[in-house]
Amino acid sequence: MPTTPDPSDGWQRALALHEDDLVTRGAAEKTRRAYASDLDALARWCTGQGIEPEQASGRHLRRYAASLSAEGLAPASTARKLAAIRSLYRSLREHRIVPANPADLLSAPKKPQSLPKVLTSEQMSALLDRIPSSTPLELRDRALFELAYASGLRAEELVSLPVAGVDFDREQVRVEGKGAKTRFVPVGETALAAVNRWLERGRPALRPAADEPALFVSKSGRRLSTSDVRRRLRTWARQAALQGGVSPHALRHSFATHLLDGGADLRAIQELLGHSSISTTQVYTRVESARLKTAYARAHPRA
């Protein structure tokens, strides 16, 4: 097996510059790690070809993209890697290291149009009502998933939410979303009551450190991780006999879809979810359309 060369000095400088720019832009740590991994692979490939960052052309990058496809990489993974390359060359152009972005004309592979998993309101009730409120961990889980569904928060936003981020008087939470963007999201009475029970009876029993700001903590008193959230949700989904694997993002999708069902404006849903583009939110209109078509096919005698 041929060895892959380490990135050249020029590539290492380019990657460090891009990393600094991502930090300045407020990119999430998860995004920075993914881009770093994707661009390290590009840098190694180019170094092996004798291509420095400022020498790479659209033709070179198309050859690299073709090599990814030849490895059998999924379209979604390839698209993410190409997005990382565009981001890198955007930085290099801004710093006048290259005159133009050679990745602008790269076409991403078409991803299959899959609709997000959405639970019905009955399934959501079965899931949430299955979680008792006896032990501290049960109180935490009930508050955690009531809040996830009531406000459509991402798993990362749930675990980073501080106690001070919950405003009981205004019935809302202050969320630091992607790109360090702050938004205020309403919270319903049921979720607020669950959070209040957790703060009064559950969180103190787990004895978090006095300087631990996180609203939701583990049994050892430390801030939860997103993997903790996914694991606990899978546990309760099995208890509620829900099929197909339920993720925290499914609760977020259900939040948005149920708002749309109830007549909420798409722009309002966009703001609540923290989407920077309305096109991202429009996926929920496809969910609603698919649901209506299914109902029509099942109910109409001439369908």
From TrEMBL:
It is found in: Cytoplasm. The keyword Cell division applies. Residues 114-297 form the Tyr recombinase domain. Keywords: Cell cycle, Cell division, Chromosome partition, Cytoplasm, DNA integration, DNA recombination, DNA-binding. It comes from the Bacteria. InterPro entries: CB, DNA_brk_join_enz, Integrase-like_cat_sf, Integrase_catalytic, Integrase_recombinase_N, Integrase_SAM-like_N, Tyrosine_recombinase_XerC/XerD, Tyrosine_recombinase_XerCD. The keyword DNA-binding applies. It holds the Pfam family Phage_integrase. Its main location: cytoplasm. Residues 2-93 form the Core-binding (CB) domain. The active site is at R154, K178, H249, R252, H275, Y284 (o-(3'-phospho-dna)-tyrosine intermediate). CDD domains: INT_XerDC_C (cd00798). Forms a cyclic heterotetrameric complex composed of two molecules of XerC and two molecules of XerD. Site-specific tyrosine recombinase, which acts by catalyzing the cutting and rejoining of the recombining DNA molecules. The XerC-XerD complex is essential to convert dimers of the bacterial chromosome into monomers to permit their segregation at cell division. It also contributes to the segregational stability of plasmids. Belongs to the 'phage' integrase family. XerC subfamily. PANTHER family: PHAGE INTEGRASE-RELATED (PTHR30349), TYROSINE RECOMBINASE XERC (PTHR30349:SF81). This is Tyrosine recombinase XerC. It comes from Svornostia abyssi. The gene is xerC.
